[in-house]
């Protein structure tokens, strides 16, 4: 059951204080599990309960604090914002902490939110220094965790040294890419399930043995094959940099090389080109440079990966890889609530029966990779950083990463990367994080005592908030023309059941819609229309979109939600009361130990720099 519940916790701070050392290594701590759906009025000040789901965060729509100060007054990245003993908190540390943390726990980028984050960073240093002074011994599990983390860190640092540090971008490179922003292209593509078919069809197209339109209809696995593979007019700013590097400078009618993406393999063609008004260069300069670095780093990474794999005698099981890819969903995606973009985070792994975990995805010189091994490696990645594995090509790339992980670790040791200053710092941060976890467990959690009366009182005090989320059941159909959309709307408004339309479509081999359910906390397209405007039975048409398609929506049912009984939310209530008590004890613990440290803070400086993603 999906629910909304009021919840109190210290988890927002704890997630930062305990997990930040891990995120600094580029491996953010996993987000708490979503045991229930939670909505909290008091969460605005205290944060959501650990283990309870949170409302999905709004995606950033601009640079936080961009209007806070004039550019001439900006502080450098090295400016000191606070000091705890000999530990400095600089502007770049603040930016790292803001963007490396769970987006759902980020404070607002205004002055109050920035001071809140700065105070949290100071508290983190106090807790860390206290843990180091106590120096609790690491358990067997801790040592295994630290070993795995060390291997991941030195692999990442090796990657940076071999790939990122080797990329050089000149002013001429930037200006050359900027010229692409002065045109728009109309792009067509054909999507294939495997590279061999893509290469063969490309050769047939180049030799003019098969027309483009025939190849699209016969081979493309994309839904836009009904439009001759036409993706519409594309601007350079809105295109994936890797794709743009492959297609933007094609001549009209020229067929591209085979392009490998998460969705599969493609060949593309530019059918039309027209002038466009380019944005000013200076605001784009860093973006263009980062795109060039990304494209070249990806190419170099692919080259190094293929070179290393060539010594492993890898044989992929394409049938099992295709089977597994069909069961993954994207961990991170964007949708719209009708007003602004919304970041959707899905932390769940696919629900796969236990026997299928033993499916072998690849065999190589050192052994094999099973689906279970892949899922364990995937689970160890923070949901925010998980790559999409919902295509065979993407999943195969992740399998290659699993195969090469011990190879990269050994290569890193051979090159002395474990002694690299950056690697040493990141490894020590993880060790510190483990000690902080022990400190919290031994000094706080072990002393929390909760009675049944406290749980019942919490439920009664917050009873008004314990309701299921409102839910809609709706039909969403598409049409390639306005006339077709209006015809479908008339049929539905006239009483024809959408189930009958979809059944007839299915029998005819047509896919143009589905019946869906959505809770109010699950933001998605047409959210406002579904929850605020339509009434059950009503139909609306929207469009055309950029591809010229129309969407037909019919609201089938609306459930306003209902009161949840104490027994239904007892676990959530217990977590909330536990965390409220732990929060109070933790704050007292910090206040007690703060007196042992020299703390210097400059909250007056928090609005004198831009909060900008360092990545």
What is the CATH class designation of the domain at 182-277?
Alpha Beta
Helical proportion? 40-55%
N- to C-terminal distance: 38 Å
Low-confidence stretches: 1-70
Sequence of strands across the biggest β-sheet: 5-4-7-6
CATH architecture of the domain at 182-277: Roll
Radius of gyration: 27 Å
Mean pLDDT: 84
Beta percentage is 15-25%
Quaternary state reads single chain
> Count of helical segments?
19
Q: Biggest β-sheet, characterized?
A: 4 strands, antiparallel
State the shape.
globular
Remind me, CATH topology of the domain at 182-277? Chitinase A, domain 3
Q: What can you tell me about this protein's structure?
A:
Strand 6 and strand 7 form a beta hairpin. The protein is globular. The protein has helices at 11-23, 43-46, 91-100, 111-134, 140-162, 171-180, 195-206, 212-219, 241-247, 281-309, 318-325, 371-379, 392-414, 421-443, 452-461, 482-493, 498-507, 527-533, 566-594, and strands at residues 3-4, 80-84, 87-90, 183-192, 230-235, 259-261, 264-275, 315-316, 332-336, 341-345, 360-364, 367-370, 467-468, 471-479, 513-519, 539-542, 550-559, 599-601. The strands form six sheets. Strands 5-4-7-6 form a four-stranded antiparallel beta sheet. A four-stranded antiparallel beta sheet has the order 15-14-17-16, with helices on one face. A three-stranded antiparallel beta sheet has the order 3-2-18. The model is unreliable at 1-70 (pLDDT under 50). Helices cover 44% and strands 16% of the residues. It has 19 helices and 18 strands. Helix 1 (11-23) packs across helix 4 (111-134), helix 1 (11-23) packs antiparallel against helix 14 (421-443) and helix 11 packs across helix 13. Among the domains are: 182-277, Chitinase A, domain 3; 470-559, Chitinase A, domain 3 (Roll). With 615 residues, the chain is of the alpha+beta class.
